[in-house]
Specification:
The complex is a heterodimer of chains A (about 300) and B (about 220). Chain A has helices spanning about 20-30, 65-75, 95-105, 130-135, 180-190, 200-215, 220-230; strands at about 5-10, 35-40, 50-55, 80-85, 85-90, 110-115, 120-125, 145-150, 165-170, 170-180, 230-240, 245-250, 255-260, 265-270, 285, 295. Chain A is α+β, with helices and mostly antiparallel strands. In chain A, strand 9 and strand 10 (about 170-180) form a beta hairpin. Chain A is globular, with a radius of gyration of 18 Å. Chain B has about 220 residues and is mainly beta. Chain B has one domain (about 1-200): Glutamate synthase, alpha subunit, C-terminal domain (Pectate Lyase C-like), CATH 2.160.20. The chains are: A alpha+beta (about 300), B mainly beta (about 220). Chain B: It comes from Thiomicrorhabdus marina.
Chain lengths: ~300, ~220
């Protein structure tokens, strides 16, 4: 099982309602994934010389300002901090890798959920409704968002095994399905320097895409490579800074349905999750073909 | 009789449908469907049911005798294991339409996705659009009529289902072969097209059927398994 939902707004007027439109889509997929849920939202973009990190910690009252002070000192720059439940979004003018190292040095129990100019990843164990409420999803703004509701099959119910998985700057992956060659592939990817935190199969798919993108592949090329190199069942949705991509394995056991109007492009594991979108009754509806990479976005 | 899924549950609707009398034909309309699963499953009486909206999985599954029209799309497994009656989808159908169905008629006005008619056992299926890959896989009996194109591996491991395709076939599955269109096939196809309300010319279709080489295990055929 597992449920996937994605919403890309073509009409920027709706950006202030992104979270409000998306929340019922995520909650509609509770039946497919009641164990954990998460989403990656894109918006509130920072300038090219800055980065934005989403961090999470088990402690709801984690002293993020202490971390910010350390980073301000080390990188000699202002650091803005925005709290959201047990997560924080930090914005600063610095390079990704040194900032990652500084955060881990400060406290290795901080989880770096995402790094980019636009992306924020928030996820947690629990029912989709609880996660939506915890992070006040309905009030969020942005240009596009993808989400996942998980029914755990390949590994335990943990925050680390929850989706979306980050796959690089402003990139993330959600997966419905199960992979059968993930153990061997994980070992091969480790040799390429990709790090893994869990025994989860989807994390391997994320690691695979991270590796391909790092080696210079485009999102389309990386996903076409995934069709060849990943064995098993999958519907993937990949979030990028500009939009999102959808691909299903060639056998296509895992469902996906798409909807498009003048205002948005949406995808979901089941139509049920699209039924609350405005104008859905007149939307163009279709199933993405197996083994084909689709992309919607700016440019 | 009318139902509204904004205020009623699928369970309520299905229970009311199952409670309909078996000796008379009742007309039923269900409004405001929004992807709900298992609608109008297990019918065992001659009702005329209209479903307004897009239905979810297994719509009209196991249907016997009822005539069910969906004014919208349907999810996976529409009319799975249908025994008799008629199911008419005005939009598109997702995967495994009429899977394992023994009888009756399924008409899809749009496209049907992968595995349409998988393991069909006597149902007749008319798809006015195209069908996805592995359609009629292990089809045993009945007819699959496709007015558009068929995806990869049509009729793989086919038994005695009759397949008629008007458009292009991406590829034929193991032991599925093109066959001659004889008078009895034109007659069979004409009747099905008429029942489905299609005005396509039966002469424009190509028939495919079993090569009958995979019925029993032969060691020479190992590579085909």
């Amino acid at each position: 099982m597992c449920g996937i939902v994605g919403l890309y707004l073509k009409n920027s007027v709706l950006e202030s309602q992104l979270g409000e439109l998306f929340e019922p889509m995520l909650i509609a997929m509770t039946g497919r994934g009641p164990d954990s849920a998460g989403f990656a939202i894109y918006g509130d973009e920072v300038g090219d010389d800055m980065i934005k990190l989403t961090l999470q910690h088990e402690d709801e009252h984690y002293p993020w300002h202490s971390l910010a002070e350390i980073l301000e000192e080390e990188f000699n720059t202002a650091v803005s901090v925005m709290h959201n439940a047990n997560a924080a979004v930090l914005k600063l003018s610095a390079e990704e890798m040194p900032v990652r190292a500084a955060i881990t040095d400060f406290d290795d129990s901080i989880r770096i959920m995402s790094v980019g100019h636009s992306i924020e990843i928030l996820k947690e164990v629990g029912l989709p409704q609880q996660i939506a409420e915890r992070f006040t999803l309905s009030g969020m703004k942005g240009s596009h968002i993808i989400g996942h509701t998980r029914m755990a099959t390949e590994s335990g119910v943990t925050m680390e095994g929850s989706h979306p998985f980050t796959t690089g700057m402003d990139l993330c992956l959600v997966h419905n399905g199960s992979l059968s060659n993930h153990n061997r592939l994980r070992e091969e990817l480790k040799k390429e320097g990709i790090q893994f935190e869990t025994e989860n199969d989807s994390e391997v798919a994320a690691g695979y895409l991270t590796w391909r993108l790092r080696e210079g592949a485009s999102v389309k090329e990386a996903l076409e490579g995934a069709i060849e190199d990943l064995d098993g069942f999958f519907t993937f949705t990949v979030g990028t800074k500009d939009g999102f991509a959808v691909v299903r394995d060639p056998i296509a056991c895992k469902p996906a349905v798409m909807a498009e109007t003048d205002d948005y492009v949406a995808m979901a594991s089941e139509y049920h999750a699209l039924s609350t979108l405005p104008g859905i009754e007149n939307a163009k509806l279709w199933e993405p073909d197996p083994g084909k990479v689709y992309f919607w976005g700016k440019g | 009789m009318e139902f509204d899924l904004k205020t009623q549950t699928v369970r309520d609707v299905n229970q009311a449908l199952h409670d309909l009398p078996k000796d008379q034909e009742t007309e039923v309309v269900v409004n405001n469907i929004s992807g709900d699963h298992n609608l109008a499953v297990g019918m065992d009486q001659p009702a005329k049911i209209t479903l307004n909206g897009h239905a979810g999985y297994y719509c009209a599954g196991m249907n016997k005798e009822a005539e069910i029209v969906v004014n919208g799309n349907v999810g996976q497994g529409v009319a799975e294991n249908m025994m008799s009656g008629k199911v008419h989808i005005k939009g598109n159908a997702s995967q495994s339409a009429a899977a394992t169905a023994h009888g009756g008629l399924l008409v899809v006005d749009g496209d049907a996705a992968a595995r349409c008619g998988i393991s069909m056992k006597g149902v007749n299926i008319v798809v006015k659009g195209s069908v996805g890959h592995m359609s009629a896989f292990m089809g045993q009996a009945g007819c699959l009529v496709v007015c558009g194109d068929a995806g990869d591996a049509l009729g793989d491991s086919l038994y005695e289902a009759h397949l008629y395709v008007k458009g292009k076939v991406e590829s034929l599955g193991a032991d599925c072969v093109q066959k001659e269109m004889r008078a009895e096939h034109i007659e069979e196809l004409s009747a099905l097209l008429k029942q489905a309300g299609c005005d396509d010319n039966p002469e424009d279709f190509t028939r495919y059927g079993s090569g009958r080489n995979l019925y029993n295990f032969k060691v020479d055929n190992t590579s085909a398994y």
